[in-house]
Each structure stands twice: as structure tokens, then as C-alpha cells.
Write a structure and sequence with these properties.
It comes from Catonella massiliensis. The chain is of the alpha/beta class and about 400 residues long. The chain has 2 domains: about 1-190, Rossmann fold; about 200-395, Glycogen Phosphorylase B (Rossmann fold, 3-Layer(aba) Sandwich). The protein is built from 16 helices and 14 strands. The strands form 2 sheets. The chain has an 8-stranded mixed sheet with strand order 3-4-2-1-5-6-7-8, sandwiched between helices. A 6-stranded parallel sheet has the order 11-10-9-12-13-14, sandwiched between helices. The longest helix is centred in the first third of the chain and has 22 residues, at about 70-90.
Length: about 400
Amino acid sequence: MQILFLTLMKIYSPSDEGIYMDLMKCFAEKGHKVSIISPLEKKEAGEEEVISAPNISLVRCRTGNLFGVGMLEKGISQMRLASQYLKAVYKYFPETKFDLILYSTPPISLATVVEKIKRSTGAATYLLLKDIFPQNAVDIGILKPFMAKALFRSKEKKLYEISDYIGCMSPANVDYLLKHNEIDSNKVEVCPNSIKVEVDISVALSADSIAKSRENDREELFAKYDIPVDKTIFLYGGNLGKPQDIPFIIECIKKASTVEEAYFVVCGDGTEYGKLLAFVSEYKPSNLTLIKSLPKADYDRLVRVSDVGMIFLDHRFSIPNFPSRLLSYLKEGIPVLVCTDKNTDIGRIAEDNDFGLSSTSDNVEDFISNVSKLTDKGLRLRLGENGYRYLLENYTVERSYEIIMRHFN
């Protein structure tokens, strides 16, 4: 098949790893021809280019600034994005008759691109629904309800309408989408975040092997970032913005000082990073190391040598979310500590399948209780091993590939 993939995720090379490139490489390895459009922001150096690999053509399409800028500039860039992507498709793939168009949210503004290419090529369309906008922005106060309805709701409906199939991240996502939209249930399914896993299963499933290999890296990396080696390390890595409810995270870290064995490492960047930095400067917490992002190689090592991976989502969300950082925790065989709104099912899935503990993100006491429980090494090893098994059974790119391709075989 000739496949076109449209994404806002920055992809620098076909050799990149992550939930999108792992899946695209899986398609390519199966013999499909994959064409990818990814943004190259105005503020970034370099010229628009095509980078090729076996069965993959990656276009880094010149766009306006989409990340780390003011709302006005971001809004203008989003408005221009569809025409820029469409121009790139016609410029670099003028003779290609696409059989399948894959595209992810955000953004919803690519609906016009998908519709035009679908009409001209007859391609099937598959939406990888990674967030539900604009309602997610309304929930945490970024957009007023009337603005969301007036500016974005019609575009969201259009996106669902032109999609032949919609892959959601979890069962709760499917339920929400069907409840709040007039969509044929036959075209909506669970197609979760997934990654490529290339390890020896017999070794990875051994709790003793996991612990032994982790210790080899631990002392060196912890010394580099001034992290104590004799504590249970709770790691959060990723975006530090409004969706994570940084004031709640700060309150949890303050109260968790009563659990002497627990130590927190927060690594990432985002619009709310300054609040954490101010907290560290003022209170100088003895149980926290704050790191403003890391090279990917160092972050991957940090996950590997940590004891627990944390997930935070604002308690006000009415839409289910399913953060992809879960996969990096499961891949390294560490349990997850989930703290989210009541509508998101990631915590329920973790507890039902015995690979983590969960509480709502408006209850500090429950969070502290779970932190205390996870200082038990035996519990952590059991949960971590269960999590790795669950990853292999549910969150591999081979599984996602099968879900998508069963519509076309």
C-alpha cells in the first residue's frame, strides 16, 4: 500500500523512535511505502527537505512556529498549517496515488488536507485520536466553552466525518467519543499508543534480571544528577504544562516528605515549569531533584534506573487521556503510580492488570498512601514484571499494525 502519514510530531529522521515512527517503520518493514509530513518550524535552522530510508520518505515541511510561542503566533501558524502540508504533498508526491491516509490529533486543522487528498486519490482514512480537542482545553480553562464551540467544534466534527476509521487510545476514549458525537460505532475502535520492543523476552520477564541490569547504571547516573542511590526513586518525565496540574504535584511532593524512603525526580519542560522552579528555589525540598529536560539517551537511562514511573493529569478533565509516557515505564519493567481525573481509565487499567497503583488527582492523602506502599521492593518487582507482560500483549506496534490492517486485508 501507498501510505501517507500526517503529524505535528517533530520527526528529524526515519531512524527516530517513538509511538509514531515505530509504527511507520513497522508498516515499512511489512513492505508498504510510507510518506510522512512533519513540521520544520520557522525558528528552526535548516531548509525544507526530504529524507529517505527503505520504504520511507520523510518530508520536513517548513511551517510557522507551533510550539513554545504565544497564543496569537501559534494560532496563526495553525491556521496556515493545512495549506502548507497540502502544498508539500503535491510538491513531493505529485504522482503518488495513496491507498491509506493516517493522521493524528493534534491538530484538528488537518481535516481539509485529508479530505482533499482522499477525494483526489480515493484513499481510505484512519484517524489516530490522541487527544480530544477542543474539550480538553475547555476542561482546564485554556478555552471558554463559547470559543470552543464557535471556533473549533465544527472542525472537530468534520475530522470525525471524513475518517473511515478512528483508533482511540483506550476503551474510555471510545465510550466518550460515541457518547458526545454522532458517529457510526462500527468505525471506532481501540488502537492504543504502542512502541517497538526489541529485547529478549525470557530475560526481560525475570525480576532478578531487571533489578541486576538496572543497578549497573544507577550509581553513575544518579551521581551525575545528584540523586540519592539509597532511596526509592519516583520519576515523572514529560510535559510540565497545565494538563499536569503542577500546583497539585508540588503539594504532593511537600506532603510526601513524611515518607523517608521516597525521593522524587521530575524531568521535563513546559509552560508551567517555572512554578516548579520557584518551588525548588523557595522551599529547597530535600526529596526532589528537578531537571529541565534531558537528551533522549540520558532520559531513557534515567527511566531504566528509577523505581517507579509517575503519571499526572489535572482532576478537572472530563475527557479520558492516555499519556504515552506509560510505555517507557512498562518497557523498563517499573511499576506506575497514576494520579488522574476520574474519567481517564489509565489508572483502572493499571490496577486491574496489577502493574500499578492509582488515585484521583485531587486527593493528596491517597497519593501519599500509594507512595508509601511502593517503597516495598517486592511489590515493585511484581508490578514491574506484570507491566512488561501487559506491554508485550497490548502495546506493541505489531499489535497496532494488525488492528489497522485488518480493515484492508
